[in-house]
Amino acid sequence: MNVVITIPAYNEADTILQVVQEIKKVMSASRYSYKILVVDDGSKDATAALAKKAGAIVYSHPKNYGLAETFKTEIEQCLKLNADIIVHTDADGQYPAGDIPKLIKEVENGTDLVLGSRLLGKIEEMPWIKRIGNKVFSKIISGVARLRVYDSQTGFRAFTKEVASKIEITSNFTYTQEQIIRAVRAKFSVKEIPIYFAKRKHGNSRLIKNPFDYALRATISILRIYRDYEPLKFFWSVGGTFFIIGAAAGSWLLYLFLMYGSIGHVPLTILSAVLMLIGVQIMLFGFLADIMRR
Q1: CATH number of 2-229: 3.40.190.170, 3.90.550.10, 3.40.50.1370, 3.40.50.11270?
Q2: pLDDT on residue 136
Q3: What Å distances lie between residue 192 and 3, 52, 76, 125, CA to CA?
Q4: Comparing C-alpha atoms, which of 289, 250, 257 is closest to residue 273?
Q5: Which of 3, 88, 190, 290 is deepest in the core (most CB within 10 A)?
Q6: How far apart are CA 241 and CA 260, in angstroms?
Q7: Is the Cβ–Cβ distance between 277 and 219 less than 8 Å?
Q8: Torsion from C-alpha of 101, 102, 108, 114, nearest 10 degrees
């Protein structure tokens, strides 16, 4: 088995050298043939130089594109390196290199996509907003994928070259949930195993600028997931909201007519009719989107 351990990195000069060295130490003691690939996402520090110094293969973006685009580049480069198994980990050192062989072993045992679950394992430190967000995300992904997933946000995962080549990532924000959903729907096997999640020793998380920013981005991602994978639920929820508001206003106007014999409130009457019409149109669009998705 040719294993490629791939690491996305953006301004991780404080940790990348140690991360690559620890992976080399663990993998050199194993029976696997391996390569380490670092995709430098337009870092402005010495991340790329230090990764090369540590012995990793480095591919650099001309500018910062974000995690999702970096993951797509990782997949492309791993397939060019003839990877049989791809292990994806982070550059900040929070996922211990010692757990990498555990993920590889599960793939060897027949699982197509193995997730290193922090919520099933031990978490040394994680911001409360991120912990709550992970649980909410995981519950939603479990419903959409129809598979119980405890940690859909984990970046620590291993998968086969078939998963890499057949699953297209289209998200421009994060790859984590999309890969799980698409893998399940493509009938690939998915399994979680508990892993250790260490405290970040240098710098701050690239994913959380502040709790409000994280909450906003998480909400947008959840809406996109429902729009793309459960269009009927998404458009019926939105359309149903418009229709109910319009119907509530219409019911009050009907009450006025029955009680007093006249309605008045012409602007409200028009608004009520428009809201119900918009609601019906959005719900019909949901039917169309669901048919097209299938």
Answers
A1: 3.90.550.10
A2: 84
A3: 19, 32, 25, 20
A4: 250
A5: 88
A6: 29
A7: no
A8: -120
Q: Which of 86-100, 104-118, 159-173 has the lowest mean pLDDT?
A: 159-173
Q: What residues contact residue 142 under an 8 Å CB cut-off, 6+ apart? A: 148, 149, 152
pLDDT over threshold 80, residue 155? yes
Cβ-proximal residues to 37 (8 Å cutoff; 6+ apart), any chain: 4, 5, 6, 7, 56, 57, 58, 59, 74, 77, 78, 81
Residue 236 tokens, joined = 């019926």
pLDDT digits (tens, 9 = 90+) for 9-24: 999 999 999 999 999 9
- Unique residue bearing structure tokens 């669009």: 285
- Domain boundaries of the chain, sorted by first residue: 2-229, 231-293
**For the sheet containing 33-40, what is the strand order?**
57-60, 33-40, 2-9, 85-88, 157-160, 113-123, 190-197
- CB-CB contact of 112 with 183 (8 Å): yes
β-pairing, 85-88 vs 113-123, is unpaired
Q: Which amino acid is at 268?
A: L
Q: Specify the pLDDT at position 66.
A: 87
Strands 85-88, 57-60: pairing is unpaired
Q: Cβ–Cβ contacts within 10 Å for residue 25, how many? A: 11
Give phi and psi for 159, each to the nearest 5: -155, 165
DSSP H helices, the chain, are 16-28, 47-53, 67-80, 100-108, 128-145, 161-166, 176-185, 211-229, 231-260, 266-293
What is the residue-averaged pLDDT of the chain? 88
The torsion region of residue 142 among left (phi > 0), alpha (psi -120 to 50) and beta comes to alpha
pLDDT of residue 60 exceeding 70: yes
